[in-house]
Amino acid sequence: MKKFLKQQVDFKYLDLNGHYKFMQNIYEIEELIKIISKLPGLGPKSAKRIILKLISNRERILKPLAKILNETFNNISRCDVCGSLRNNDKCQNCSILNKKTKRICVVEDIADQWSIESSNIFDGYFHILGGTLDSSPGSKESLLLNSLISRIEKEKIEEVILATSATVEGQTTAYYIRDKLKGLSVEISKLGQGLPVGGEIENLDDGTLHSAFKNRSALKADSD
Question: What is the pTM of this model?
Answer without folding.
Answer: 0.73
